[in-house]
Amino acid sequence: KNQISPHFFFNTLNNIYALTEIDTGASQQAILKLSRLMRYLLYETNHEATPLKREIEFLNDYIDLMRLRLSDKVAVSVTMPTTFENIEIPPLLFIPFVENAFKHGVSYREPSFIHIAMECQSEGIHFRCANSRFNDTESENKTGGIGLENVRKRLALIYGKNHLLSTEASTNEYVVTLNITLLKAKS
């Protein structure tokens, strides 16, 4: 299973500290989000499956905390489902893609974007994460490849042929698409 980088926690705490000087209400909300995120990591990741609703809450908290350190030059859009049919998934299934988007898809010199979308139907889940791509792909090739390979192995173990993971890299965009077919329990 993927774990959140320790740097994320240190950076988030530093960002919240700086935020306390500017906006007390926003810093209080950030502390709540960090608390929920840590609770999820401590308790939900010990289970084989977690409700999709909790995974989405975790992703939203993570994304909101990452936004604290972004400038106005970074456009972040997130579209998540609001209704779920008691779907359960392995915890931390989508975070490697979101984490990589923030790690490799953000430039402090150029305008950049991250677009994250998930759709759920009774037959499955469709997840798409697109981000800016820059000429600095050397670091992406060194670290992103291993993480992606681990995700592929995990998906194969859990879903077998009932998933499709694809990545697409163009000159200025990197896209990850994951489709998961949900099997109905036989009654």
What do you see in this structure?
This protein is an alpha+beta fold and about 190 residues long. It has one domain (about 5-180): 2-Layer Sandwich (Heat Shock Protein 90). Helix content is about 45%, strand content about 25%. It contains five helices and seven strands, in the order ααβαββαββαββ. A five-stranded mixed beta sheet has the order 2-4-5-7-6, covered by helices on one side. Strands 1-3 form a two-stranded antiparallel sheet. A hairpin with a 2-residue loop joins β4 (about 110-120) and β5.
What separation lies between the terminal Cα atoms? 31 Å
CATH architecture: 2-Layer Sandwich
Q: How large is the radius of gyration?
A: 17 Å
The largest pleated sheet is described as: 5 strands, mixed
Tell how many strands the DSSP assignment holds. Answer: 7
Notable features of this structure?
single chain; 187 residues; alpha+beta; five-stranded mixed beta sheet; two-stranded antiparallel ribbon; 5 helices; 24% strand
Summarize the structure.
The protein is 45% helix and 24% strand. It has five helices and seven strands.
Q: Helix and strand layout, with pairings?
A:
Layout lengths: L5 H17 L1 H20 L6 E2 H16 L6 E6 L8 E2 L5 H10 L7 E10 L2 E9 L5 H22 L3 E7 L3 E9 L6
Parallel strand pairs: 2-4
Antiparallel strand pairs: 1-3, 4-5, 5-7, 6-7
Helix pairs in contact: 1-2, 2-3, 4-5
